[in-house]
Amino acid sequence: MGKQVIVLGAGMVGVCCALELQRRGMSVQLVDRREPGMETSMGNAGVLARSSLMPFNHPGLWSQLPRLLKNDTVQFRYRWQYLARNLGWAARFLLSARPAVFQETAEALDGLIRLSAPEHLRLMDASGARRRLRDTGWIFLYRTQAAWDSGALARRAFAQYEVPTQELSPAELAALEPALSPIFHRALWIQGSYSVDDPHEVVAAYAELFRRQGGEFRRLTAGSIRRDGQGWTVQGLEGSGSLTADRLVVALGPWSKDILKSVGISLPMAFERGYHMHYSGRDGASVTRPVYDTGGGYVLSPMARGLRLSTGVELDACDAPARTDQLDLAEARAREAFPLDKRLDPAAWLGRRPTLPDSRPMIGEAPRHPGLWLALGHQHIGFSTGPGTAKILGELMADGGGAASRHYAFRPGRFI
């Protein structure tokens, strides 16, 4: 097939795919309704972490389920009408918490994360974004011994996949992060990991690198896609134009589900929504790296715009109205642990994390749709694993057979 490619979606995953295909000699158009990095990639905690190999649906989820279903925790909320309409997805998600599936997922995600980290460093150097990078890891905080004990499964997984960690006593934690209140029984420092001070600016820098190297970015709100002869066409909404290329990569994150319906593909995708807000620290207080309060259900990250408080999961429709009670509760818990001062944003930011039942992304060609490629479903880790996803996609496009066996865990055919 020809070398003209449209990459639909300009978040971290889409931008990295555009760069990788460009590097392989293809003529790439990057397309989105907004400027690069303005949607889900903007609002994360900015962590590029080896520890992200632990999916939300792990074997320990079964014991947590009675508490989570009460729908009053900081970590997890759901809209019951949405869950009732998506019971099939929920059942498959829970079944994927079985030990055998969990092990397959953890191994696949570990490989994807390992592949991504050196590519991030290369792209940061090439784009000038390296100044935004910290190599100080991040810290998991535990308020009680029971909370520490409940994290044993994660610690075993980290040890199995050689994620470097260090257990911290209260005194050791205070030496690293003196602004935290002394309410934590123990902490786990995840080392060998990175964080950035502005996720959006990193994506924007990668996109600018793509442009400098001859790539084209187009603003278009895609309404549908279709196969035209040997190529693919993206049709804009309301007569806003269309684009055609030999191959099409759908990397629209949570909006991939709707666009793929136009070619009869029904994705089993749900939306783990989340909120963030920026704060100042009282008397200039801050943290030097992201911290995850496992009991408080939030991550606090030092960003260029202030301290970013990111919430846990809210299961609801992709574009349902915001419900900020989860953020309010997370803020209250954060104030127990840190001297937060004023809110710095006029309104809470809302993002959508696109999640497939086994918490693995789809990377590869869509079955029965030649020339249609998918790079989607990254749940919470699209920002950190975009470069690895792009490497796999490039391998699959260039060497389908051999690469397909190497990256079997991410095959779209497991759900399509």
TrEMBL record:
Lineage, top-rank taxon, reads Bacteria
Q: Mind telling me which GO cellular component terms the entry cites?
A: cytoplasm
The UniProt record lists the FAD dependent oxidoreductase domain at 5-396
Q: Which Pfam family, an example, fits this chain?
A: DAO
Q: Which InterPro entries match?
A: FAD-dep_OxRdtase (IPR006076), FAD/NAD-bd_sf (IPR036188)
- Keywords, comma-separated and alphabetical: Oxidoreductase
Tell me the Gene3D superfamilies matching this sequence.
D-Amino Acid Oxidase, subunit A, domain 2, FAD/NAD(P)-binding domain
Query: Mind listing the GO molecular function terms for this protein?
Result: oxidoreductase activity
What is this protein identified as?
FAD dependent oxidoreductase
**Which species is this record about?**
Achromobacter arsenitoxydans SY8
